[in-house]
Predict the 3D structure of the following.
Amino acid sequence: LYDEFYDSGENDAPRSVVAMFFKGQEMAYRAKHPGMTSADATKALDRFVGRPFGQRRYEDLAKFRTWADHQDSDWRGFSERMGGAVKAVAPRSKNWTQYRAWGSNGGNIAANGTTEDVFGSLDMAATVFYKDGGTGDRPVFAPMLADILRVRDDLPVWTQIQGLSSGLHGGHLFRQAVFGLSQKVEGLTFFEIDYNPIAPNPHDNRETVRDIAGALLTPYGDFFASLDRGYKKVAVLYSRESAHLVSRKVNRLNYAAEGLWVACLRAGFPADFLYDRQLREGKGLDYEVIFAPGYAYEDEASPEILAALKRLVAAGKTVIVER
C-alpha cells in the first residue's frame, strides 16, 4: 500500500506540506476532544512529572495520553483508509505495507508508528530497512522484526534479509535467514542483495542469494513452514503507554526492550514481544517470565495495565521491572 512513510510526512515532501500535515493533526485532535489542544495535553504531562510521588494526579497523565494516542491513531486510520479503498475495488486482495524500520538498536519496535496500528487492519505484514553505507547487515534484524510484526497470531509475516555489499561475507546473511525462519515466518524478502551478471564484482551477492534461495528455502522451505514455534516462556513488554513519556525519562523504552530481546536470545532463552493490548487480554499468562522495562514513575501505569500485571503475579508468574 505504501513505503517509506514517516511521522513527519511523505519522503521528500516540502516543509510547507509537512506543516499542513501537523496543522491537520491538531485540528483533528481538537475535533475529537472539544476544548482541548495539544499544548493543554503537554502541560498536563508537565504537571504530572513535576510533582513528587503521592502528589501526582493520574488525571493529568490520562489527559496527556489523549494526545499521544491521537498521534498513534493516525497510522491506524491511514492503513484502514488505504486498505479499505483497495478492498472496495478489489475485495479479494491481500493488503500489506512495508513497515519502515532502521535496523539499529532501538530503531525497530516503534520506528514509524507501532506495528499494531500499522497492521491492525491489514492482511499481511512485511518490513524494509536500509542503512546508508557500511558492509553487511544487522545480525538479528530478521528474527527480531518477525517477532515485532506478529501483532496477531494469524498474521502472515515476511521478514527481511538485508545485505549491503555483503560479498564474500554472505555467510552471515545465510545464518540470519535461518535465524529468521526460527520465528515461523511465511517468507523472506531481500533488500540490496543484488547481482550483476554483466559486470560482476567481489562485493556482489550472487552466492548469498544462491545459498539462501537454492540451498535453504527451496529444499527445506516447506519443512520450516510446517513447524510450530517451540520455546515460549519469556516475554518482553513494550508498553506504548510507558513509551509515550519518553521525553521525560532518562532511558528510552525502545532501546531497553530491544536490548532485552537480544540479551535473552544470546542467553539461550528467546523471548517474545508483548504489547499493551495483548497484556490486557491475558496473553502474558502464556509465559513464565515477563520483563516490563521503562517504568520510571511509580504511578504511571494505567489502572488497566497495572491490574494486568498484578494478575500475572497472582498467577505465579515472574514480572521483572526496573528499580
About this structure: The radius of gyration is 21 Å. Strands lie at 5-6, 9-10, 98-100, 125-128, 157-162, 187-191, 234-238, 271-275, 289-292, 318-321. The first strand starts at residue 5 and ends at 6.
